[in-house]
Amino acid sequence: MSFTTGLAVAGVVLATLVLSVLGGMLVTPWVLRAAARRSEAEGEVPPARDPGPVPPPPGRVVPAAGPRTAASAPVPPPPAGPPVPAPVPSAPDPATGATPSDPGGPVGTEAVQTLRGGTWIGILERLAITGCLLAGYPAGIAVVVAIKGLGRYPELREHPVGAERFLIGTLASSIWAAATGLLGAAILGVLR
């Protein structure tokens, strides 16, 4: 193998690994959001989100707790009318990807908190899968998936809400890594 061919092979390997990692960082969250929207459209009810304490309407004074005196007369109830909804953020939460339309489902906050470190694990998973295919060792993919599944098993057993996110994310990430690895291996086959 000549120096220029070796340099081209190294460039293809590096470009394939970078494409696998960076592309997977875009594809996997997109698939998770699409799955959440699909679940909601099919009628699956996402878990209700507690808006927290709702402040009193403007101009209304809330009496302090304690013994009543003549000066602290009871405040009449507010006039009947539609309840005032709590303000809901319109932009997605950057940490979870959840938006007001999909607070639960595969990208719900509880699932994200359960599967901490998922971004780094996904990066390493894509590097390993793509590297196995570039090295001509596709059986290594089974090892990568087995290690990931066994490593996450205790968390998923305690918090089953994260299982759906784990499966969807792992499949999306693995498919992307395998596709880029096969593309890179095909290019390497032409160069050799």
Describe this structure in words.
Residues 48-60, 74-92 have a biased composition (Pro residues). Keywords: Membrane, Transmembrane, Transmembrane helix. This protein is elongated. It has a domain at 1-45 and 105-192. Helix 1 runs antiparallel to helix 5 (161-191), helix 3 (118-134) runs antiparallel to helix 4 (140-158) and helix 3 runs parallel beside helix 5 (161-191). Residues 88-107 have low confidence and may be disordered. The chain has five helices and no strands. The protein has helices at residues 3-41, 109-114, 118-134, 140-158, 161-191. It is mainly α and 192 residues long.
Features:
transmembrane, mainly alpha, DUF4190 domain-containing protein, transmembrane helix, elongated, membrane
What's the quick description here?
This is DUF4190 domain-containing protein. The protein has 192 residues and is an all-alpha fold.
Fold blueprint:
Blueprint: H1 3-41, H2 109-114, H3 118-134, H4 140-158, H5 161-191
Cα Rg: 26 Å
From the N-terminal CA to the C-terminal CA, the straight-line distance is: 8 Å
What level of helicity do the residues show? 55-70%
**Mean residue pLDDT:** 78
Task: Tell me how many strands there are.
Answer: 0
Structural class by sheet pairing and helices: mainly alpha
